[in-house]
Amino acid sequence: EDLPRVDGHRRGLLNDSVESNSSKPVPKIVVGSKAPCGRYPYMISLRDEDAIHRCGAVLIDENWALTAAHCLDADTTLATSQILYIGGCNLNDDVVSGEIEVTRPQGVFPHPSWMGQLQQGNDIALLWLAHASTHQPIALPSAFLEVGKGEILVALGWGADGNGIGDGNLQEADRLAAISNAACAAPSLWGDVIKDSMLCAFGFINGQDTCKGDSGGPLLRAFSPRGNTAEGIPKGDILLGLTSFGDKESKCGESDKPGVYTRVSYHRRWIDTVIESEGQYDEVPKVEKRVACGASRELCGISYSLQPCLNCVE
């Protein structure tokens, strides 16, 4: 049986016609809205040598950022050179004001198990910044943090809408519903493509989705008092995923298949190992498996408000 056709470049690199100086007033994240300026200071525009936005990234530490590994593949314009614009609201914001930090990475670390195939997972890379950032980073999840079925999540990006157009403003899709990997792996959806290292989310209600240029950007549990992200604070947000791929057969927001994201908690031990060793590590840390616990057979830590079970690790 053929696997579904995946498209990282639909959710990934912008084509050359969608440049950072586009003035067309169309949202980029599909059916999203303009993000409140300053609400997401950890958001990064990853650009090439011509200052064209190609992918998203996210600040996780004053010296480190995460993005999707496929953004840095050998056939991309980011393969040999990357410029990070940290903390902007619009792709055309003036960097002279000092509100936006511009830096390059002194080290780039794709996951060693990334083989250039989105279906195989591990679509994640660390960027070691040449200069420390003063912007607020986003919190990382614990290795055992689970996302509840139906939990409402937020995706961020400067990518294109379903027609390949963007207006330069940072967009948020704030009504994405998480679905379990078991449901996402149904034959009618992604089937065997889905791995433990992936996370699925879908705009069930209104067709929200990520699109071109959003890859590497964050999928997060936003601190949203009264359900309003604008009232939240960056310190309360938790990074859950990185935009990875979608359905090649449909426009963004029109597919019956959920968007697929890299599950950050799955890679937490690797992230910590790279940061602590500054990239000089001998082997990839083993991923500790979650196991079912108790008579209820619920997975450990299925709700972030509950303490994980004592027998979480095999």
UniProtKB/TrEMBL annotation:
<dbReference type="GO" id="GO:0006508">
    <property type="term" value="P:proteolysis"/>
</dbReference>
<dbReference type="InterPro" id="IPR001254">
    <property type="entry name" value="Trypsin_dom"/>
</dbReference>
<dbReference type="InterPro" id="IPR018114">
    <property type="entry name" value="TRYPSIN_HIS"/>
</dbReference>
<dbReference type="InterPro" id="IPR033116">
    <property type="entry name" value="TRYPSIN_SER"/>
</dbReference>
<feature type="compositionally biased region" description="Basic and acidic residues">
    <location>
        <begin position="1"/>
        <end position="10"/>
    </location>
</feature>
<dbReference type="GO" id="GO:0004252">
    <property type="term" value="F:serine-type endopeptidase activity"/>
</dbReference>
<keyword id="KW-1015">Disulfide bond</keyword>
<feature type="region of interest" description="Disordered">
    <location>
        <begin position="1"/>
        <end position="25"/>
    </location>
</feature>
<comment type="similarity">
    <text>Belongs to the peptidase S1 family.</text>
</comment>
<protein>
    <recommendedName>
        <fullName>Peptidase S1 domain-containing protein</fullName>
    </recommendedName>
</protein>
<feature type="domain" description="Peptidase S1">
    <location>
        <begin position="29"/>
        <end position="276"/>
    </location>
</feature>
<dbReference type="InterPro" id="IPR050430">
    <property type="entry name" value="Peptidase_S1"/>
</dbReference>
<keyword id="KW-0645">Protease</keyword>
<dbReference type="InterPro" id="IPR001314">
    <property type="entry name" value="Peptidase_S1A"/>
</dbReference>
<dbReference type="InterPro" id="IPR043504">
    <property type="entry name" value="Peptidase_S1_PA_chymotrypsin"/>
</dbReference>
<dbReference type="Pfam" id="PF00089">
    <property type="entry name" value="Trypsin"/>
</dbReference>
<keyword id="KW-0378">Hydrolase</keyword>
<dbReference type="InterPro" id="IPR009003">
    <property type="entry name" value="Peptidase_S1_PA"/>
</dbReference>
<keyword id="KW-0720">Serine protease</keyword>
